Amino acid sequence: MKGPAVTGPFALGAALAGREQASLLRNRIATDGASGGRLRVAGREYLNFSANDYLGLADHPAIKAAFNAGMGRYGAGSGASPLVTGYSRAHQQLEEALAEWLGVEAVLLFNCGFSANQAVLKALLGKEHMLWQDKLNHASLQEMGSQLPCKMKRFAHNDMAALERQLEPNRGLIVSEGVFSMDGDQAPWGELAILAARSGNWLMIDDAHGLGVLGPEGRGTLAAQGVNPACVHIQMGTFGKALGVAGAFVGGSRELVEYLVNFARHYVYSTHMPAAQACAVSKSIELVRAADESRAHLGQLIARFRQGAKDQGWQLGASDTPIQPLLVRESSVALQLAERLRERGVWVSAIRPPTVPVGTVRLRITLSAAHREQDVERLLDALGVCPAVTTLGEAHYG
């Protein structure tokens, strides 16, 4: 039941009405659980092609057991910020495991990737600095960059020539993603490392969607592309995608981590992640490092989906990762398609502006190692019987 209209200086109702009229209004849907590539909503089970659980670890019994054991030892919460009493032996052991896995000197834990990204930019960049960002970087990076006193320049997506024209020597930080969250493609990290070294600027990777999925032992985009981690000054990754838990980290030199411990306000003034959560992530890392078979299976599913979707005439993004954007351009079309898929027991999310640029509306289809071949075939069958072009318009075909 709606309450009385709110009056005052903020036109909330008008803003919401505008979003609704443009088919851009966002709504939450309460789920009843998800596991094994499935999702339960209102008593019905769906094939889940919307999650970021790329290796199917979110419901893994060994990770849940580690979480429970951690709660038995440390309790349900950390109780304080990390500089008070919130930093435990479990946090320390996780940081050490991450540093060894990723080939960096030191690691610092954060509650989420959004705060990790913003903490780094805010702590490092002053009015004397420059910040260069790919235009498709995550909102956490774009938003903080626009609020800082430094000058920010955005270069066309993965356009290294455009970036090189913008660069000034020894002025600041270049930031891009390993795997772009809405497009699924990768940045050219070998080229980025060369440009950073030549210009004397620092380089940062947001590898939230590459970690665990790409490279030997799932070490991420840099490992997959053969880039020495020493060439990238700052690594950020998250635990809520392929690792199946939650939280994030920033890795780099010991000096960088010590600096962030002292100057990163998002770290200093936040209650730390529960130690039990750190125990769960440590177990997840063990599983991820040994998950080559799961990564191979995931690669086969990606290839099958791409071939099947292309055979049906859908326009896909240039992605060989679990993130497969199916471009439909119009928000109303994307919402209708998502609803028709749900009617057939397949859960796929429509992604609309401002999350993606105007004119690039899509169904963001994500695959998981928890899916079976027959699950992908069922997704393709559902796409194949979606409403005819005359019903939804030509926008959803390439």
**Overall pLDDT, averaged?**
93
Could you list the spans in which at least 5 consecutive residues all have pLDDT below 50? 388-398
The CA-CA distance between the termini, in Å, is: 42 Å
Largest sheet: 7 strands, mixed
Indicate the structural class. Answer: alpha/beta
Beta strands, count: 14
Short description:
The protein is an alpha/beta fold and 398 residues long. The protein has helices at residues 12-21, 61-74, 89-102, 113-124, 139-147, 160-166, 189-199, 221-224, 254-263, 265-268, 275-289, 292-311, 331-343, 373-384, 389-392; strands at 34-35, 38-41, 44-48, 106-110, 130-134, 151-155, 172-177, 202-206, 234-238, 248-252, 323-329, 346-347, 349-351, 361-366.
Structure in words:
The chain has helices at 12-21, 61-74, 89-102, 113-124, 139-147, 160-166, 189-199, 221-224, 254-263, 265-268, 275-289, 292-311, 331-343, 373-384, 389-392; strands at residues 34-35, 38-41, 44-48, 106-110, 130-134, 151-155, 172-177, 202-206, 234-238, 248-252, 323-329, 346-347, 349-351, 361-366. The model is unreliable at 388-398 (pLDDT under 50). The strands form 3 sheets. Strands 4-10-9-8-7-5-6 form a 7-stranded mixed sheet, with helices on both faces. It has 15 helices and 14 strands. Helix 7 links the parallel strand 7 and strand 8 (202-206). It is an alpha/beta fold.
What key phrases describe this protein's structure?
4-stranded mixed sheet; 14 strands; 40% helix
